[in-house]
Amino acid sequence: MHISVYLYIIAISIIVGLVRFRALSPSLIRWFIPFLVATLAVEITGLVMWTHRLNNNKMYNIFTSIEFIFYSLLFRSVIEDSSIKKIILSAIFVYPILFLINTAFIQNFSHFHTITYRIGSIMVVTWCYLYFRQLMLSEKYISLFRNPLFWISTGLLFFYTGFFFWMSADVLFFVNVPVDGTLWFILSDTLNALLYTCFLISFLCQIKITKKSLQ
d(Cα 56, Cα 110) in Å, to the nearest integer? Predict the structure, then answer.
């Protein structure tokens, strides 16, 4: 059974996060620890099911829909504009309804929910853009490379942009690209590795390097 590199990155991120748990700032970053534990459990379960030729789409449908809600709650906490907060809150309530309609009446629940996954991807990419815009317009000096939310947003931006275009290739480029095969696994592993590496950096970026620590 082939174990993707990004699973090791998730495991390392969990360990680093637990070691630095009290030092993680802002405190909402700490919620990523149980989230990553759940992610690793789902990924390993999905891998075992796939190896035994069992359908794991139902599990991924539920978990990926929860991911979109989780990330939306994160950005609602860090974005300061009250009107944008209301938009994100509305999206948090509307998205599960769209997901249920899609999986019940449009796409069978035993198939991956590509339609609502694309909608969720657009949501998260939009939240990332709004957060980056907030950083650019801020009058406060913020070191981006030491800002954990910058790294999390960067990982999410690349991850969901990549998957959106992959899943939308048939609509945007009139190319029928299957969600399986070697090319799919290369893209999936690369984007996942990039995402969780950014999460790992977000746990580490606040460590102050001193001369004493280098000795």
Answer: 8
- Rounded CA-CA distance 205/209 in Å is 10
Residue 124 in contact with residue 65, Cβ under 8 Å? no
Q: How far is residue 210's CA from residue 178's CA, in Å, rounded to a whole number?
A: 50
Q: Which of left, alpha, beta for 153 (phi over 0: left; psi -120 to 50: alpha)?
A: alpha
Residues 6+ apart with CB under 8 A from 3: 47
Q: What region, left, alpha or beta, does residue 157 occupy, with left being phi > 0 and alpha being psi -120 to 50 degrees?
A: alpha
Of 91, 89, 40, 56, the closest CA to residue 99 belongs to: 91
Look at the pTM and tell me if it is higher than 0.85. yes
Q: What is the pLDDT of residues 157-181, one digit of tens each?
A: 999 999 998 888 765 544 565 555 6
What is the pLDDT at residue 138? 87
Start-to-end C-alpha separation, the chain: 42
How many domains does one find in the chain?
1
Print the domain residue range for 67: 5-214
124: closest CA among 171, 101, 158?
A: 158
